Amino acid sequence: MNEIIEAANASSDHIGYLQSVGLANTWWWPPDVMQHVLEMIHVYGHLPWWATIVTAAVGVRLLTLPLTIRAQNNTAKLNKVKPQQDKLAALAFAEQDPQKALQYQMEQSRLLKESGFKMSASLGPMLSAPIGIGMFFALRKMSAVPVAGFEDQGVLWFKCLYEPDPFLGMQLLSTAALLVGFRLGGETGMQNMSGTMKKMMYGLPIVSIFVMMNFDAATVLYISTTSLMSLTTSALLRNATVRKLLRMEPIIKLPPPDPNFKAPSMAERMKKSMADAEKLSRIAKELKESPENQKRATQTHASAVEAVYRRPPQK
């Protein structure tokens, strides 16, 4: 234990320091990998810890930028056919005949396929989640030690990185960036969300202020930088010139929802789909067990057998 305390008080300006204080023990566990990355940026870049954290956050965002571009382009493709999709979904929900409802659903699938929309592309940004989670726990553990330099290598009003931001400045900055980003639509696809989901998305950043108020400044600095990068990305990708250079679909402004129309919820649509599937299954079973169908099937089988036996022998 004394060795770890002595190591923590030593200089962190060399590779292997974090391992000497019980951190960065593996090259496969996400928090450990992120600690290795932070240490390399800190040592080889000759940067103070606050700049190391900011550089890492910017680097992660740039690394995952292609996934973000692909996801936003995918959303634009979806928006091209969304009015028709919504209309078909409403018709399918209101249709009592399960066969006709199924036809509407098949038409929806056809529209999506023709638009080029792919669900996998929208889920792409989620692949960066292990990096973000890894960085979160990496910084939390580094602050818990704390590593050498965290006590005075902060910046502005938060000189100490292992203590909470005394003025909640970064928490407020992060929340503001997220709210503006949501307003722009950005990576969240806010245009396609229901009213309830939008309210939840706007409420979460505000709640996060209280969640993060006791977090160490190092972790909140990373989160704030990531939020600002998200806002910057959203703003840039809304620019028509940028989208043209990146060969992205143009942004289509969706018409305002009809106040007299109440779209069915996801649960209601699933319940209706299950009921339709049950009806179709019952109809298919009844047709199969129908005496007329059984007689027709027997006659068809007998005709096929007779045709085989009447076939002239091959020479």
Automatic annotation (TrEMBL):
Pfam families: 60KD_IMP (PF02096). GO terms for biological process: protein insertion into mitochondrial inner membrane from matrix. It is found in: Membrane; Mitochondrion inner membrane. It is a multi-pass membrane protein. Keywords: Membrane, Mitochondrion, Mitochondrion inner membrane, Transit peptide, Transmembrane, Transmembrane helix. Residues 49-237 form the Membrane insertase YidC/Oxa/ALB C-terminal domain. It comes from the Eukaryota. GO terms for molecular function: membrane insertase activity. One of its GO terms (cellular component) is mitochondrial inner membrane. Residues 285-295 have a biased composition (Basic and acidic residues). The chain crosses the membrane at residues 47-69, 119-139, 167-185, 206-224. Its main location: membrane. Residues 285-315 are annotated as: Disordered. Belongs to the OXA1/ALB3/YidC family. This is Membrane insertase YidC/Oxa/ALB C-terminal domain-containing protein. It comes from Tortispora caseinolytica NRRL Y-17796.
